[in-house]
Amino acid sequence: MNNYKEIMRQECEDNRFTAGVNMLVLRNGKELIYEDFGYRDMENKVPFSRDTIMRLYSMSKPITAAAVMILADRGLLDISNCLCWFFPGFKPAYTYKDGKRVKTQNEIMVKDLLNMTSGIPYPGEGIAEQQVSEVFWELGQRIAGDNPMTTMEFAGRIAQCDLSFDPGEKFMYGSSADILGAVVELISGMKFGEFLEKEIFEPLGMIDTGFWVPPEKQSRLSKIYRTNYEKWCIEEEDKDRNHLGIRYSMVKPPEFESGGAGLVSTLDDYAKFATMLQNGGEYNGHRILSKSAVRYMTSPSLMPWQYKSLSENWKGLQGYSYGNLMRNCVDPGQALIFAEKGEYGWDGWLGPYFSNSPESGLTILIGMQRVDCGTCGMTRKLINAVRSDLDL
After folding, report:
1. Alpha-carbon Rg for the chain in angstroms
2. What angle do CA 92, 93, 94 make, to 5 degrees?
3. d(CA 203, CA 24)
4. Contacts for 242-246 with beta carbons within 8 Å, 24 or more apart?
5. pTM for the complete prediction?
6. Cis peptide leading into 332, omega within 30 of 0?
7. Separation in Å, CA 382 to CA 17, 34, 267
8. Cα(52)–Cα(224) distance, integer angstroms
9. Rounded Cα gap, residues 151 and 135, in angstroms
10. In angstroms, rounded to a whole number, what is the distance separating the alpha carbons of residues 278 and 106?
11. What spatial distance separates the first Cα and last Cα of the chain, rounded to whole Å?
């Protein structure tokens, strides 16, 4: 049996990668492994323990996809609907071809938002990316003021931006999940967070998952760390900062409830969501999704030309397709980890990681809070060690 704590120790202490980490492994919903190492608060020597609350960042996206599937299950949403039917500001849409601004040939469908083929980018260097950067900058500036930007206002502002490409033309990771949060609000008539609480968190018993951390739980919220490579040490990130409009401190309910990055959770809470998907949409007597919706949600969805753009431009996802805001393994031999065909899940900017493997029933959850992390070397080492020990 591999020594998971030693793998964690080497990355945290020897390689100065992050302050703390934990891992939970289940098979068919039953716990097989739990291990942790290091601190959620280095200064005060508070361990990175099982009850540590983490900012999920992009690991929020699968939950947003589940919310969309709930609406589809009930006949309230057609995923082929054009986004402009909900938000007229998205029509007409423009992109750039050969240096000229032109109208797009296609309109954004809800399915494009789920598959990251919408052309809506994250902040970056291109023309459309710079326009989106300005929206995120304003979002961040207004967080602490008297007029914070709402989820619906954010969608309206993004609708005024150009697209990076014609919808459906290719895959590119971007702000689509945040727009889906606004779609859920519009259809349900509830705030996005209220919908998630009523339809997912409460029935699953996810008591530590939401868009903020109340005062009585703040001591359990991990600090954020980064590696200072010049001094070769781990440093705490400024708690007053924000990233993608998400305030690090999480001290009050936000007006902008980000479907792409805004949630916090614990490994035990997220395990309930993961097990629900493994069980075909049901957990502990509560049915969240139909089996049909789960099959759809957990299947690869990119068309061949879209898959080509993913495989060429995201080197860490070799062997994976994408769909419904999650990766999906289509060729384990091309992957950078020991994987199974059909394995799906996602990770987050600060390092939390989620993986379900339907064939073996294996669920792997890893938690950390390290800037610019995603699926890192420690994550891959731990996954390979787990799969080797379980001979999967």
Report:
1. 20
2. 125
3. 22
4. 242/140, 242/143, 243/57, 243/349, 244/57, 244/122, 244/136, 245/136, 245/139, 245/140, 245/143, 245/149, 245/154, 246/55, 246/57
5. 0.97
6. no
7. 14, 12, 15
8. 12
9. 12
10. 35
11. 14
Contact of 37 with 48, CB cutoff 8 Å:
yes
Instruction: Say which residue the tokens 């600090």 belong to.
Output: 223
DSSP strand E in the chain: where?
A: 20-27, 30-41, 46-47, 54-55, 94-97, 100-103, 225-228, 233-236, 242-243, 246-247, 264-265, 282-283, 286-287, 320-323, 326-329, 344-347, 353-357, 362-367
Give me the amino acid identity at 296. Answer: Y
pLDDT tens digits for range 264-277: 999 999 999 999 99
Cis geometry, peptide bond prior to residue 92 (ω within 30 degrees of 0):
yes
What is the Cα–Cα distance from 386 to 338, expressed in whole angstroms? 9
Amino acid at 78: D
Rounded Cα distance, 208 and 392, in Å = 31
Q: What is the pLDDT along the chain (392 residues), one digit of tens a residue?
A: 889 999 999 999 999 999 999 999 999 999 999 999 999 999 999 999 999 999 999 999 999 999 999 999 999 999 999 999 999 999 999 999 988 999 999 999 999 999 999 999 999 999 999 999 999 999 999 998 889 999 999 999 999 999 999 999 999 999 999 999 999 999 999 999 999 999 999 999 999 999 999 999 999 999 999 999 899 999 999 988 999 999 999 999 999 999 999 999 999 999 999 999 999 999 999 999 999 999 999 999 999 999 999 999 998 999 999 999 999 999 999 999 999 999 999 999 999 999 999 999 999 999 999 999 999 999 999 999 999 999 86
Is 286 in contact with 280 (CB distance < 8 Å)?
A: no
- Quick one: tokens of 82? 């054009």
Number of Cβ within a 10 Å radius of residue 213 = 19
Q: What's the CA gap between 387 and 385, in Å, rounded?
A: 6
Distance of alpha carbon 186 from alpha carbon 180, whole angstroms: 10
Q: In what order do the strands lie in the sheet with 46-47?
A: 46-47, 30-41, 20-27, 362-367, 353-357, 344-347, 326-329, 320-323
In angstroms, the CA 69 to CA 65 distance is: 6
| Cα(224)–Cα(389) distance, integer angstroms | 31
Report the C-alpha gap between 8 and 37 in whole angstroms: 6
Here the tokens at position 335 are 């992957």
Neighbours of 88 (CB within 10 A): 10
